[in-house]
Amino acid sequence: MGPEGKWDVEKLREDFPILREQVYNKPLTYLDNAATTQKPQVVIDALTRYYSKENANIHRGIFCLSEQATKRFKSARHKVQEFIGAASDKEIIFVRGTTEAINLVTQCYGRPFLQAGDEVLITHMEHHSNIVPWQMLVEEKGIKLKVAPINDRGELILEEFKKLLTDQVKFVSVVHVSNALGTINPVREIIRLAHAKGIPVMVDGAQAVAHTKVDVRDLDCDFYAFSGHKLFGPTGVGVLYGKKELLEKMPPYQGGGDMIRSVTFEKTTYNDLPYKFEAGTPHIAGVIVLGAAIDYVQSVGLDRIEAYEQELLKYGTEKLLEIPGLRLIGTAEHKSAILSFVLGEAHAHDIGTILDRQGIAIRAGHHCAMPVMQRFKVPATTRASLAFYNNREEIDRLAAALREVTEVFR
Fold first, then answer.
1. Closest alpha carbon to 88 in 104, 74, 100
2. What is the total count of domains within the chain?
């Protein structure tokens, strides 16, 4: 942060060592933050410190290292609780990422509590991780999957969502921010409408928590999922938040390790929350380092991050729309810092390859959201996704490289 607390993106960039790297003798321009974010030095140091000075298994060790690791693991759970505004750290389940969190809910809530003919309502902008697990229940249990449509701007058509929210719907699962479009869904209103009919709601927050303040009690969602690696933290760790009363009645779907209270050959008694859903040795280092990432994000300030990224999105949108033949896919009024586009007849993979030679890292493809591509009748898009360490110079570099692409494919 700059003098007197002013936003200083160049100072913040110094926290991220990888941003000083070069690719093909060009400065790295990293614009693939929706896929994974880069890590600040304090996060890298936390990982190194754990493995070099603190490594031990947790919970049952009676020696110093184990007690220290257990204390830091529990501290990280409390940090997550405060970060998302949960009522208790017992509502914080550590998983491998958003995908596993959603699968846990489909298996531990959907499988025991949904019956043949019950409907689950999602939207047309969902990531595959919030489609495929439900389709598995369609095949296994005979539930029905309903899809709320989106308009040409990539926004949920709320009136159509309301029409689909019938008495047959027993669960709603929606993305907070679309990874393919950048659309910010009206999740608070979605939750209000569903709860008016007694329907629980899960929110996929993978693309939200690094860009805006999330308060699960304010939203009143029943489940909320996110991944550490999109929050400037490590891969292989994520969070499922669930309301305590729901988690308590849900059976676990993995057995072994600390999820037990007692075991005989005749019967196993499961542990209390949150351990009931955390079978086996957890990703101890990942959880502790996720706590360090949360500390870092909070030191920067999510309100300030959101405001800066919105300025950068506006600048990037204006710059890209100046390029002949470029069409943005996803132009919602309420949008996160994601710029998905097609450019003339150039395929997204060709664009990605050309940009890579300029040191520009973007994502090209269907972004694990193939139904979105089908909705907009495109095979793929090129996606530049921004984080608070990006700057205008990088957007200018992207725009200049895209103009070169138009020359190649003229």
1. 74
2. 2
